[in-house]
Amino acid sequence: MVEKHVQEIPMDVKWLEWAQKLQAIAQNGLTYSENPFDIDRFQQVQTVAAEIMATYSGMEPTYVLDLFKQESGYATPKIDVRGAVFQDDKILMVKERFDGRWTLPGGYGDIGEPPSLAIEREIFEESGYQTRAVKLLALYDRNHPRHNHPPFEYHIYKLFFLCELISGSPTSSIETEEVAFFAEDEIPDLSLTRVVPSQIARLFEHHRNPDWPTDFD
Known about the structure:
Blueprint: H1 14-32, H2 36-57, H3 61-70, E1 78-87, E2 90-96, E3 102-103, E4 106-108, H4 115-127, E5 129-141, E6 156-168, E7 176-182, H5 197-208, E8 215-216
Helix pairs in contact: 1-2, 2-3
């Protein structure tokens, strides 16, 4: 699935955490409030959150506010699924058309679709390979500082699945322009908003140690 609102935001940003928390407060308040005065107050909080993010990120305030308004219901992190597919001790990667860098195939999970099926679909759509999800290797909080992702406007949980290669051949897509397997010492420039070197290294460790339990933050 295309990450439709991808924006890489400058590093070292406490203001991003504040803006995300204010947006969550506003979204939750707008979900449960019926009093028009409370609704107005939460709309003001949402506007302030959008202004904070716009001021420090360089994005247009109206663009950020529109993003926030698209979110409804109780605020929770988004789910990003990524597949680790190994062949001959090499890992499958795809080159993103968006930024010209490489990542594990994957994207946001869809409503009504189990995560295991979501990653199998994403891998096929982005790489041309049919796979079967066999194990959840890691569940990471993208916001956790130890992962060192570039800041992002949404709070995201990242699910890394070990997927068994069944069939298929490398095929590019509307989102990906190249498909290839890489050895651990051959990893190309990564799309850091999607995956970081420490995560790739950890997946190779899991590959060498199949009895390890799932990692989590």
